[in-house]
Amino acid sequence: MRKGVLRTGLVLALTYVLAGASAGTVARAAGEVATGTASGLPVPRFVSLKSDKVNVRGGPTKDHDVTWVYTRAGLPVEVTAEFEVWRRIRDWEGAEGWVYHSLLSGRRTGVVTPKTKDELVPLHEKPDPESAVTARVQGGVLGAIKRCNAGWCSFSGDKFDGWVEQSRLFGVYPGEKIE
Fold first, then answer.
1. CB of 173 within 8 A of CB of 167?
2. Which of 21, 27, 37, 94 lies 20 to 30 A from 84 at CA?
3. Where are the domains of the chain?
């Protein structure tokens, strides 16, 4: 993993060299992306979008073009790198780009990821596959992650509440414990 992180830092540094950045900016870019020291928080980590309008840019400055815009607050994204006040994120469909840090929230949310396109994922009354099913949700459904333990997450949203297998959510790492 370290090899990939360093390569990312070097690619970003090369981007700054080609853009005519100073040596100090290049070193800071490579160092902050490689070590994740900009915020002091772990990288990677899951967060959610704070706003209904979040511009995603091709690089970590306002000089980079907006490549797309998210239009739904609460979507979970994974922070994969940091540079100063910018965070490189990846969404549940694998798209990546850079966003300004204040557009992200530490609130944990998840998106249901079914194994097949038409599958409805069951939510259970308890963290047990034998417990009663409280709802069945489609892929792409967004909800709040209240807590996770032993492979199950308490997951709720508009008109549903229950326990879902942790592996069925984008927004939480396998085996991650959330209280």
1. no
2. 94
3. 2-107, 110-170
Cα 43 to Cα 3, 15, 88, 102, 177, distances in angstroms:
15, 21, 10, 17, 17
What's residue 75's pLDDT? 98
The Cα–Cα gap between 160 and 179 comes to 20
- How buried is residue 4: exposed, middle or buried, by Cβ count under 10 Å (0-12/13-18/19+)? exposed
What sign for the dihedral angle of Cα 129, 130, 135, 137? Answer: positive
Which stretches does DSSP call E strand in 19-102? 45-49, 54-57, 66-70, 76-83, 86-90, 96-100
Contact predicate 43/80, CB 8 Å: yes
Domain 110-170 annotated CATH 3.30.360.10? no
- The tens digit of pLDDT for each residue in 61-78 reads 999 999 999 999 999 999
Average pLDDT over residues 120-145: 97
CATH 3.10.580.10 fits 2-107, yes or no: no
Find, among 116, 85, 110, the residue nearest to 165 by Cα: 110
Q: What is the rounded CA–CA span in Å between residue 54 and residue 42?
A: 22
Backbone angles phi, psi at 25, to 5 degrees: -65, -40
Kindly indicate the confidence band of residue 85, based on its pLDDT and cuts at 50, 70 and 90: very high
